[in-house]
Specification:
Layout (H helix, E strand, L loop, with lengths): L5 H6 L6 E13 L3 E7 L7 E6 H10 L6 E10 L7 E12 L15 H6 L8 H23 L3 E2 L5 E2 L11 E2 L26 E3 L4 H11 L1 E9 L12 E10 L3 H22 L1 H14 L12 H9 L4 E4 H10 L1 H4 L16 H11 L4 E7 L15 E9 L3 E8 L4 H10 L8 H8 L5 E7 H9 L20
Parallel strand pairs: 3-5, 6-10, 12-13
Antiparallel strand pairs: 1-2, 1-4, 2-3, 4-5, 7-9, 8-9, 10-11, 11-16, 13-14, 14-15, 15-16
Helix pairs in contact: 4-6, 4-7, 6-8
The structure holds one RNA strand of 77 nucleotides.
Length: 479
RNA sequence: UCCUCAGUAGCUCAGUUGGUUAGAGCGGCGGACUGUUAAUCCGUAGGUCGUAGGUUCAAGUCCUACCUGAGGAGCCA
């Protein structure tokens, strides 16, 4: 008999029918007559209550039904006599598939700290919190493709190994097959990358954008969704060395079109989560409330589902960098000297505290900041007519900060080359990128969404290491 | 990388101005209980106090270095 998934069992009204379920034991309790086994198979946050008659199965077998053990149960679906669930499974046969020694098994039927679970990331899929996050993560992956596909965007796999380090998006991981114990040198005594696998120095990608732009200059609307690597020594709850990024790139889009798409995209994803992950979101919401119950009322975050709906139902605030500077300059914390970095006027780089003030205190909703000074942004962003600012946009979310960074791209060949020279980008190496500005150049725009940052927001989790199964951070590549 | 805080039982923590034999809750194990819901009740085992030095008659407690983790900053998505 084929196993039925617990999510289907719990939705089933086939009372009296015989089914087989398989899964992992969460807890077992009971007395001399009857045992109750909470069984979970990962298909839902909810457990199935299996009722086992002690006389039928014997204490010896039931003793092996420990927390963490895997079992198969054939039985009859019945209305529950208890109050915690509608249906339960009256066991006819029970088989222990894999025993689990409770003295060694680290997961106990109790609350564990997220820090502890991170140390046993290979087992944390078996917890409510991480199975819920994994299911939401899957739903969001699916929704990303669904959104773009429905709009006629073409998904492009950009290379993971690249030879260009001109992106300037951060420190890169080197990729090499050279013998590190015996590195070949050229006449000048420098490392001879001609001997390396690709015949030149290569790295893991920090962004698929440049290749994405090439694809957009023929397919018009494309998106990438792939792993991204940054070798920055960042130790924060918002950074990973290996993360997943979504980068759409659209021909004939200006910055306003770009902002419209970004806002529509984020709202689509949030709506998809609400529509398809309600059980898991409900669980994550309660978990968050439990975690924050000792905090003062004004330090607690908004209830998770309420927060998601709030973002859906409100327009994102759009304002320019210069407007933001004016607001910040006149703000109370700035006048009272409460900012660590005082805002004097145009030119200042916005610190986290300033972004947080705008999003969390002043507007109390997502904010899209545009038109930053060119000095603090990347070379490829389109220069405004003022010659001072570029058509950049950062989408700022409460708690997370920058969730999206994007821009309209500079499509004018001469202006782009001038910017590259100013910023010491090797122009010759980038001939292929510049070619798109020589042959039928069009205005175009795009952005990058940090997938794990999106998940932080949707799940309400506080640490990015908890929304990816196996986080890669400085000094940590376990599992 | 910088700043701050933390590391004591399987887990979460308490441990006073340095002073005898380091405690609790949960979890485990044994027992009780005719349907439980993180069951409940009774009993029980379990510790090189992160590591290495140092100060002292005496260090879980004070000092130094290192390791690990968390929060914040920078970098960014």
């Amino acid at each position: 008999m084929r196993r039925t998934k617990i999510t289907d069992v719990l939705k089933s009204d086939a009372i009296g029918s015989e089914i087989v379920v398989k899964g992992w034991v969460r807890t077992r309790r009971g007395n001399k007559q009857v045992n109750f086994i909470a069984l979970n198979d990962g298909s839902t946050i909810h457990n199935l209550q299996v009722v086992a008659d002690v006389e039928v199965f014997g204490e010896e077998l039931l003793r092996r039904v420990t927390t963490g053990a895997s079992i198969a149960v054939r039985g009859e679906l019945a209305p529950s006599q208890g109050t915690g669930q509608n249906v339960e499974l009256l066991a006819r046969t029970l088989e222990v598939i894999g025993d689990c020694d409770v003295n060694e098994y680290p997961l106990q039927p109790k609350k564990h700290s997220l820090e502890f679970l991170r140390e046993i990331a290979h087992l944390r899929f078996r917890t409510n919190t991480f199975s819920a996050i994994a299911r939401v993560r899957h739903a969001m992956i699916f929704a990303v493709h669904s959104f773009f596909s429905s709009k006629g965007f073409v998904n492009i796999h950009t290379p993971i190994i690249t030879a260009s380090d001109a992106e300037g998006a951060g420190e890169m991981f080197q990729v090499t097959t050279l013998d590190l114990e015996n590195i070949p040198r050229n006449e000048e005594g420098k490392i001879d990358f001609k001997e390396d696998f690709f015949g030149k120095a290569t790295n893991l990608t920090v962004s698929g954008q440049l290749e994405g732009e090439l694809a957009a200059m023929g397919l018009a609307d494309i998106y990438t969704f792939g792993p991204t690597f940054r070798a920055e020594n960042s130790n924060t709850s918002r950074h990973l060395a290996e993360f997943w990024m979504i980068e759409p790139e659209m021909a004939f889009y200006d910055l306003n079109d770009n902002m419209d798409l970004a806002e529509e995209f984020l709202k689509y994803l949030i709506q998809y989560a609400l529509d398809n992950c309600s059980d898991d979101l409900q669980f994550l919401s309660s978990r968050l409330e439990e975690e924050e119950k000792n905090k003062k009322a004004d330090e607690r975050s908004m209830e998770l589902i309420e927060k998601l709906k709030f973002v859906l139902n409100n327009e994102f605030i759009r304002l320019t960098y210069s407007e933001a500077i004016e607001i910040l300059k006149e703000s109370k914390p700035n006048k009272k000297g409460q900012f660590k970095y005082q805002i004097e006027g145009y030119g200042a780089d916005l610190q986290s505290e300033h972004e947080r003030y705008l999003v969390e205190k002043h507007f109390k909703k997502p904010v899209i900041l545009t038109d930053y000074p060119k000095e603090i942004k990347a070379f490829y962003m389109k220069l405004n007519d003022d010659n001072k600012t570029v058509r950049a946009m950062d989408v700022l979310f409460p708690q997370i900060g920058e969730i999206i960074g994007g821009s309209q791209r500079e499509e004018n060949y001469d202006k782009l080359v001038a910017r590259m020279q100013e910023m010491h980008i090797p122009v010759e190496e980038m001939w292929w990128y510049l070619d798109t500005r020589k042959f039928g150049a069009v205005p175009h725009s795009g952005f990058g969404l940090g997938f794990e940052r999106l998940l932080l927001f949707v799940t309400g989790m506080g640490n990015i290491r908890d929304v990816i199964p196996f986080p890669r951070t400085p000094k940590n590549a376990e599992f």
